[in-house]
Predict the structure.
Amino acid sequence: MRRLPRWPLLAAVVALCSAHVGSPDAWFEGSAGPYRVLVHVQAPGVIPGIATVNVRVDDPDVERVTALANRFDATGGAPPPEIAHSVAEQPGWYRTQLWIMTTGSYSVTATVSGARGTGSVVIPLAAYPLRRLRLSAALGFALGAAGLVLFAGLLTIVGAAVREGVLPPGAQPDRSRRRRARWTMAAYGGVLALVLLGGKRWWSAEDAAFVRSMWKPMASRAAIEDGRLIFAIEDSIWIQRRNVGWLRSRGAPRRPDLIDDHGKVMHLFVVDAQEGRGFAHLHPATTDSVRFTAPMPPLPPGRYAIFADVVQQNGFAQTLVAKLEWTGEPPPTGEPQDADDAWMTRPAPPRDGAGARGGTTVTLEDGSVLRWLRLGRPMRAGDDAPLRFTVEAPDGAGPLEPYMGMAGHAVVVRDDAAVFIHLHPLGTVSPAAQRQFLPRSAAQATSPERLPSPDHSAAPAHPDPLAHALATAAPAADTITFPYAFPAAGSYHIWVQVKRNGRILSGAFRAVVESTIRGKGP
Amino acid sequence: MSRVSTASAVFTSRAEARPAEEPDWPLYAVLFASLGIVAGLLWDISWHRTIGRDTFWSPPHVLEQIAAVVAGVSCGWVVLHTTWAGDAEARARSVRFWGFYGPLGGWLCIWGTLMMITSAPFDDWWHNAYGLDVKIISPPHTVLAAGMIAIQIGAMLTVLARQNRAVAPGGRLSLLLVASAALLLVMHATVLMEEAAFPNHMHASRFYRITALGFPLVLAMIARVARLRWPATTAAALYLAIELVILWTLQLVPAQPRLAPIFNPVTHMVPQPFPLLIVVPAVAIDLLVRNVRGRDGALAAAVGIAYVTLMVGVHWFFADFLLSPAARNFVFGADTWDYNVTLGDWRYEYWQIDRDAAGDWSRGRFLIGTAVAVPIATVSARVGLWLGKHMTQVQR
């Protein structure tokens, strides 16, 4: 195993938030200079919005933790960093909030200062509106009631002005004046009603515009043809991304091309979200980045959710989604798969309570025992829930090997497929996107295809992050930890994949996550 | 007279023995509220252009909240006192609202305060749902603005009723009335800030059409209703003075941006653009309203023509000065921009100018576009004169 070179004090190791399904936060576990940190950036749900940055430092001699957000193309410098305050009920954790003002590519820089010096870590944040907030019944009722009172009040004022306001003190309004006041109130009432109607339409228009601006992955479709799985991107702006005339005529942006992410242009997962009877991690091939094909593995027939992770040249990662009805026909051709493809099947777990929560050990195909070291407390949405596993090998089996550069892979899917995340021990990291942020020569740094990194002017060159991942891939004691927090309550499947003796081993667990009582958050 | 509730009979019997003098402090309270609202608004806009981030309790917000509370509490006190502890004379000079008595302007101030309070939770939800202040004009901000303007109009009506009841013409009350109109002019100019305030706007006919919408209304109205020799001129001069004090004060306060992306690293609060010189057409409006007899339609047309002509005459050349290096100093506050604005030559160019088909500036199109401003100003002045006529009758 190659030793990691000593990082300079102001090391800028970069991690990327991937736009996974229903799981927008960014997790990074690694080094910030001389300190070991775990950083969790809670993405804002709306833009402009507030991102909460949580930093855990495994060092007692920390003097200060700060964070700042900046957009990659800002030329007037960065705003002063915000001081992250220690969290009372969570020792070692520091938290602050940052305003994210525009959509696009932001970077969050967390800096730790203490007895051992200063270290930084830069975490890009893909800033897009993500969720729609409904008006709660209580607030809606309160505002409606206040609105009624104000409506009636204004009409009363108008009536009082016409009826008495223009009379000398003490004079009483006669009948014609009272009648005029009533007519004026009625007319104003009509006008106000129209104004309120206009206001309601305005609100609906703003809401519709917001929904249109929300993040959506490119439309995609999955199908089986002659025993092969075909995954096709159907977004016309993507298909025509090299057709400048077509794009210009529609005022459409040019989408950056795909790049390989830890060695593959696409990581595609075929998941039986509901019962967990089948799971496949495939690496389809493509010639045009529109149609991706892979031999279909021998999974049991059923309904599957397809999740396809890709990374673009600008460092932006997203998960494309599709559904697949697999009838089992035509049968898989038995064609050789990509060497890193892996799948597993298992019988549907029993529906009773014990089975639904799942056990904590699984025996892998080579006899290893994959054990989930569950937290001693129930898992709640929003709470830290690092997923820790040990792999106990049978005697003489040899150490775990990196699987595509990682100590292990975990895939977390909710049973309705509304939450999906593809996790590594580094967190929600794509080494390919990391590479996009490394300092390059001046000429390359000005390339429009790359995101220039404002922090690298002071930092010397860094090793390839894939090499760094490889160097730290093999765990010392066959314990693998994936930093994570479940974003929503529900019933989940967790698939874990490791590699030994050139063989990819997969195991599955069930997890039930409860609603938050007092989750960490802004 | 209407019955007074038995619960307050104790107060009634004591108060009616000796009619109280009408207190002045409510006038100053509502005018303070009106001033606090526009000052807070200009300060808040500067805050967003300089620092970027704010909270519910940022200093400009606190000023606006204090203004709302002062308006609501002072008028609420007057209402309760008049209803339960006031004498018959106090109730005689009030209007009735759901069994309570108070000055007409006071009720509008209370309504405005309640609108401002209601807008707060609405605005908070809106930020969480659609983003933090992505646009200035949003439904909750409109509710807030309606409340603010209601307080300002309520302040004006409160002073107006006192002026109209006073026997002697002119004097302190009329000056306070003109001040309340000046505060409305400041509010109107602030609302127009994005569209028709920068010198870069002033070579486009659009500027003259937009500024013809509201200023003639307020100036004609105050010219008719205030018992001073130069009411519109005084209102416009006070508007100028208030804006200048705020413009100069802001530039003295050090500040730095606290949000990314920063493209213009400012070091002090960014002020609003230099105020408009509406004092010049205001002089003409005073002269016309005082001297032109006959139908208001003809008077309004005269006001419309004079207003637009003088606005063009003054601002066309004043804009040249404001865009020149001679104006880039503390006094004129020119060439000051938001922290997140990418600087460039556009700062010294004229925007949205009238162009012909070839894309060159067209004098003809400018003149036609400006001529369209005349009927707009005429209608605006006509409405102002009509309002003024009715307002001279307000006595409660």
Observations:
- Chain A touches chain B through 53 residues (CB under 8 Å).
- Confidence is low (pLDDT under 50) at residues 1-18, 437-476 of chain A.
- Chain A is about 20% helix and 35% strand.
